[in-house]
Amino acid sequence: MSTVIAAYLRIAPLTPAAPVDPMALRNLLYGQCGPGNGVEHIRVRAGPHGVDIIAFIDGNDPERANEVLRQVAEKAIISTTSLHLWRIV
Which of 31, 38, 41, 85 has its CA 20 to 30 A from that of 22? Predict the structure, then answer.
């Protein structure tokens, strides 16, 4: 039986920026998921202080799950012009 771990992080702009569409960001994040990284589901919620991201990742190692989500978010930030001023906080 497979175990799924929830991983969480928040991204926020370094300076005031246009809001990010949660569905568009979710699609960008899914686009950065590689085969075998175990990402099952991603949820995105925009708020006044940034965007909360929760991913459900196959496995039983919370540290690995957090690292997978961090890598996916970093790739999305690097590859998307409108997110270049955003960072993981």
Answer: 38
- Provide the 3-class DSSP secondary structure of residue 43: strand
**Helix and strand counts by DSSP (H, E) for the chain:** 2, 4
Q: Give residues with Cβ within 8 angstroms of 37, minimum separation 6.
A: 57, 68, 71, 72
Write the pLDDT tens digit of every residue in 16-37: 888 899 999 999 999 999 888 9
Mean pLDDT of 28-47: 94
Single pTM value for the model: 0.93
The CATH code of the domain at 4-88 is: 3.30.310
**SS3 label, residue 1:** coil
